[in-house]
Design goal:
Pfam families: TfoX_N. By secondary structure, this protein is an alpha+beta fold. 30% of the residues lie in helices and 34% in strands.
């Protein structure tokens, strides 16, 4: 699995004080799950950010990210962010905070156990 380990460490640093974070390999990278929901993912040298459709529209206008497509389908709550948009810790913190802000509203894809 090829992803930027240093970037993953930078994300870990910003999430270290949370007790509800787990890591999972997916989307060709390492994803940080918050409250059992995909929050932010390091994929290659980019970030995959789950920020919600409203914020997606705002951030796309700024030009530092692109829509996420999955099997030809637009994933409306997600964007891929290019590395120039988080080339310092302050910029990375901005993206992590956008993801954390949306996380309580995000739907969990975790399968529920049937009794």
């Amino acid at each position: 699995m090829a992803y930027n380990e240093q970037l993953a460490d930078r994300v870990r640093e910003l999430l270290f004080d949370r007790e509800d974070v787990t890591e999972k390999e997916m989307f060709s990278g390492i994803c940080f799950m918050v409250d059992d929901k995909m929050c932010i993912c390091v994929s290659g040298t980019e970030l995959l950010c789950r920020i919600g459709a409203e914020k997606v529209d705002i951030e796309l206008e700024k030009g530092s990210c692109r829509n996420m497509m999955n099997n030809g389908r637009l994933m409306k709550d997600y964007v891929y962010v290019e590395d120039t948009a988080f080339d310092n810790q302050k910029k990375l913190k901005y993206w992590v905070e956008l993801c954390l802000e949306f996380n309580p509203m995000a739907k969990s894809s975790k399968k529920k156990m049937k009794n």
